[in-house]
Amino acid sequence: MNNLYILAAADVEAEGEVIKGESTEGQTEEIITTDGSNSGADQEPAKPPPGLMQYLPLVLIFVVMYLLLFRGPRKKQQQHKKMVQSLRKNDKVRTIGGVLGTVVDIKDDEITLKVDESNNTKVRVTAGAISKVLSNENI
Q: With contact defined as beta carbons under 8 Å apart, do 125 and 110 qualify?
């Protein structure tokens, strides 16, 4: 029994190529392709990469995600925590809202800033509200 396999295409044209191969019964089969490519009669099938090499791209993606999404923000949090812990009385600071002031008092998670010298105006903020220490700069 001869089997005829035709690879489907949008427009079947007469320029197809005939490729011969053997069926399981030892008879010759013809495979017709329209793109002129050999359907694998003379080529070996592609082999997957050996062992762990096939997972290498996936591992690299996770490493990059870790570095960008987790390590960077954690490092900034540690730097901010270190900066807040090193605050002392009379340090000049800027808050995340842009308020400039001088540290008057430091309690657990609360920092009192003096923002106006003439009226003796004080503002209490959380430690997370301190953006930058400006001790060496003029306010």
A: yes
C-alpha 34/C-alpha 7 separation (Å) is 8
Can you tell me whether residue 129 is helix, strand or coil?
helix
Domain that holds residue 95: 84-133
- pTM of this prediction? 0.53
CATH of the domain at 115: 2.30.30
Is 127 a member of any domain? yes
Sheet hosting strand 92-95, strand order edge to edge: 121-126, 110-116, 100-107, 92-95, 130-133
The string of pLDDT tens digits covering residues 10-61 is 554 545 555 555 555 655 555 555 555 555 555 677 776 677 788 899 999 9
Q: Is residue 64 domain-resident? A: no
